[in-house]
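CORE FACILITY INTAKE
Project code: CF-77B
Contact: R.S. (postdoc)
Sample description: multi-component assembly, two entities in total
Requested service: structural model of the whole complex
Turnaround: standard
Below are the sequence entries exactly as provided by the requester. Do not edit them.
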Amino acid sequence: MSTKFARAAEQRHDFALIANWIQPKSKVLDLGCGDGALLGYLRDKLEIKAYGVENDDTNLLDCISNGISVIQMDLEAGLAGFDSLSFDYVILSQTLQAMVNTEGVLREMLRVGKQGIITFPNFGYWRHRIQLMAGHMPVSDRLPHQWYNTPNLHLCTIDDFESLCDKMGIRITDRIIINEGNTVNFMPNLLGSLAIYRFEQAWPITY
Amino acid sequence: MQDSPSVGLVAPQTAHFKDPLTLKSGEILPQFDIVYETYGTLNSSKSNAVLICHALSGNHHAAGKHADTDKHPGWWDNLIGPGKPLDTNRFFVIALNNLGGCHGSTGPASINPATGKPWGSKFPMLTVEDWVASQAGLADHLGIEQLAAVVGGSLGGMQALQWTLAYPDRVRHALVIASAPNLTAQNLAFNEVARQAIMTDPEFYDGDYYEKETVPRRGLRIARMLGHITYLSDDAMGAKFGRKLRDGNFKYNFDVEFEMESYLRYQGDKFATAFDANSYLRMTKALDYFDPAFTYHGDLSLALAKAKAKFLVVSFTSDWRFSPARSKEIVKALLDNELSVSYAEVTAAHGHDAFLMPDAHYHQILRAYINNISTGASA
């Protein structure tokens, strides 16, 4: 099982980067966890207490086959089954752009978790911009769907996301922008295709 | 019907327990028998045993047939067998008839050793806790210290949950299906109507109908009809029966006119000849009493703090008797205790009865979870 998750991590450069931000033996919730590969990778590497949330039947079944603890629920309805600050980290990996209630899920992430970790495709990536200038909706490795069948509803650029965090009182503690596995430091909003953030509530909130 | 692998012919066995069992009510059962069946082979380390807990009207005959001529196999045959989700090539599966039942284990129709007559009204009230204690006795009898898993649906799921609380070190996995941490007021109400139907039957004789050689059949029949309505969803009933008329036209009398009536009467009649009314009364009371959070001021998370097992919780979207929301209460309490838990909410039209159906996705989930259950002992 462990080699399987390690293999998945080879295909997903963001796995190792996320792992760098997570304390060993901490408690991690992955929202929209897919087949559980990220959680399995983190569990094997860092001995974390891992839980996933998934609403898709096929993904849920894959998680259970992979021995990942997974709760079937609709993220859009919030995280009612989870106590406030009951997790060290809440991860939302390449799911934000498909959410209806973008602000709601960010708020719930920081209610349930002490820190949030999020990854999303950067709509401002230059290849996307070129396609738009040529008069078409962007299609790329990161955005593989056509406009008419995409699950994505709320695409954003790195700058857009940071503005939203600012508005919501979310403090970004770490940011890594990558393209084809390499970190992008120069003009990330133009040259980066995937954004990875770690963030927390900027001011204490009592629940 | 397709040919599915089966455990084949099985025979029930009886375990005698000579030591008295002190029940939660304080009453004492001086001695008792438990009838059970087993499928598969117990391994040398006795670490591959899985206990099946039955629901309200179930029994020990969960898989296989007693004779080739049997019309139907055991009640959970679609789950249990070689190559089935609960694979008897890997696991040693135990199914029993709970105390108070009417299929061979000591119950109200058994002889009370103090009087030499059937227990009848004198048979004590049983609780889920008592059942689990007696099931642990059965495990001892079979030389099994730790169960690989306890599996149950509905009232059986309550027993699986109770196992993890009463014997946290004796169960590695609990599969709690279509169940709840206690009954809702509406569920209590259904049970009370069912009991009133039985207890107001003139042939009930306060529970001592055995010596009168009568059976409160009418009451039991109505109780079962009521139960059946609640086990199905409105959609499932609509799809199966709708407003279909047996003869195509109204007859303007009280004979069976609608197919729905025909089905209910058939189910009621079948049950009334096969089940004991005193057993039914006690099974419904055991359901009513189950509430592990009761002694923790309603705090289920606190109540489940003792559990150590890993859990699979499954609910069905159309189950309004044990709704998904009730399963989520269990899941939340398990999460609060940082226990390993997976929760599946299966889209199914069959209502509460869905847990007995061979729905493909539901069975895939059970299979995937059970495949990861080790047959080796754990510390």
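Facility notes:
- The interface with chain A takes residues 312, 328, 331-332, 335-336, 338, 340-345, 347, 361, 364-365, 368-369, 371-372 of chain B (CB under 8 Å).
- The longest helix of chain B spans residues 259-274.
Invoice: internal transfer
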